[in-house]
Amino acid sequence: MSNIDPILLLSAIIVVSTPILLAAIGELVVERAGVLNLGVEGMMITGAVCGFVVATATGSPWLGFAGAALGGALLSMVFGILTQLFLSNQVATGLALTLFGLGLSALLGQGYIGVKGPVVPDLYLPGLRDIPFLGPVMFRHDAMVYIALLIVALVWLFLNRTRAGRVLRAVGENHDAAHALGYKVVRLRLAAIAFGGACAGLGGAYLSLVRVPQWTEGMTAGAGWIALAIVVFASWRPGRLVLGAWLFGGATALQLALQASGGVQIPIEYLQMAPYLATILVLVILRAGRAPGSLGRPFHASS
Amino acid sequence: MTFKTVLLGATAAMGLATGAMAQDDKTKVGFIYVGPVGDLGWTYQHDQGRLAVEEEYGDKVETVYVESVPEGPDAERVLTQMALQGADLIFTTSFGFMEATMNVAQKFPDVKFEHATGYQRADNVSTYSARFYEGRAVQGLIAGEMTESNIIGYIGSYPIPEVIRGINAAYIQAKKVNPEVEFRVVWAYTWFDPAKEAEAAKALIDAGADVILQHTDSTAPQAAAQEAGDVITFGQASDMLDYAPKPRVSSIIDNWNQYYIDRVGAVIDGTWESKDTWDGIDAGMVEIGEITDAVPAEVKEAALALKDAIASGEVHPFTGPLKKQDGSDWLAEGEVADDATLAGMNFYVEGLTGDIPQ
């Protein structure tokens, strides 16, 4: 335990939590609009492969991230059209989207296994990077880490300080009332779902372009499910979402750091279980958070 | 091209002469892989062996393969299907395929099986493996000489004898050239998962390791080391030359080509028998990839000398005096480990820290 450098551990936590933070903030907006999309994992992995393919083809990781966002959003539209226009069951459709995304990504990724992707440089922040402790922890990462945090801040602003954000929340709380007031429920929800897909895609691409950086089938390895859990953990609030992502990222990073530090007395299996146990505990303890009123309920203008 | 055309013509003529028999005479060889052929590591090398078989025997053989087969019930299904489709010989190329291989072999006594790195045999099941630990010893020497932090990171896959043997062999040599050296082992519980391997490599680098050895098959740890800067790595299973001259300073290359050619040949001749093969550097099954200029000349020389000494049988990587981790005696002065102990190795040698997960 004493061998672990807290600066390096915290810095690792911030990086490890970025993909789940991205996916979770997208899902948060979707759920605040009253839609439950369980297909986060599928959209993440599709984003991972789209990002990697575009980035290796163009040599630009930024175009890769754009491609990932687009890929995730397109896939989420499958879910959007099925649930919003054809009123299919959201839980079943979301699960199907995950399975579909895993298969689709494996197909798209044929021929990209073992290929070396372009390098994403760390963002050089003069001044900030030299602050003792805070500098190495917070300010020596790649740009996507900050973009993710910026997206969270913007979502908070949008939900709490803008008219459009309040309309979105109204739609999520009570879609019949929102409809009666003349808001376009379906159109708004489709936009929210597309945003969620794009964010999940970015999260997936962060794995395939920054973290690993390579493409492998199934490389998101359950990150999408953790993102879903974090949204509940955060009781649908952007601020707590960051905390949740760091907690979950922290469990993973600590597990590896403990092993690498040598002299661990805790069996590794417990460490490997830790993030998942934490997920369950959080789900049980934090029942207090209230879900949006219309979450997961189908809407049709006639009802 | 023309040669192949001639062969094709000859086969066609024979086919005309002997009717449908010619079709059945073709020896069908199946391979199941634990990872994708494009892993540029373990599975890639096995597939190179498959291609060598095709090259050697041309139209006399037909090869099929299934990649990324999970270890477990899926493997049994894939094997059964291969056997039903008329495979004469099937190579199962991962330790975790052992049970599936034994089960399917029992159901298809006429099909021959070759299981890599396992220890269970039957009349129609052979086992084969390479003495990777000989290569690990050479890596250990380079690692011990090269490290400045005296912390060497080791990414283990599963805590099975093959992996533990590698850790011990590398540690013994590293300790010999650098008494201060310390090993940190992270178990990834996967053979091929670039995301997990990259995380493990980063955690080890964060913990101060400036040399990373890996017993997992992807190049992700190499990429992580490259990004970190002053860290060196070794190619695993395959050469991983993309990352030379640094971080990858050398590699262990598994060369299955000759073995696969010999065994397929034995099936064609009808001389195939169940046996256990365990070859090392001298037979060419384990090769040491080029040691790059990132390694000082005298270290390179010492590494090559060790490699030659192991090949000639002059040096055995496990030579006493050696104690087990708990301090009990294992090998007396000058005593050499026997193959049975090595094959079932489930303990660390003295000096290694941490526990082997049970």
TrEMBL record, chain A:
It comes from the Bacteria. It is a multi-pass membrane protein. Its main location: membrane. The chain crosses the membrane at residues 6-26, 38-57, 63-87, 94-115, 143-159, 190-209, 215-234, 241-258, 270-289. InterPro entries: ABC_BtuC-like, ABC_transp_permease. Keywords: Cell membrane, Membrane, Sugar transport, Transmembrane, Transmembrane helix, Transport. It is found in: Cell membrane. This is Simple sugar transport system permease protein. It comes from Limimaricola variabilis. The lineage of its organism: Bacteria, Pseudomonadati, Pseudomonadota, Alphaproteobacteria, Rhodobacterales.
Automatic annotation (TrEMBL), chain B:
Transmembrane segments: none annotated. Pfam families: Bmp. Residues 26-314 form the ABC transporter substrate-binding protein PnrA-like domain. It comes from the Bacteria. Gene3D superfamilies: 3.40.50.2300. Keywords: Signal. The keyword Magnesium does not apply. One of its GO terms (cellular component) is plasma membrane. Residues 1-22 form the signal peptide. SUPFAM superfamilies: Periplasmic binding protein-like I. This is Nucleoside-binding protein. It comes from Limimaricola soesokkakensis.
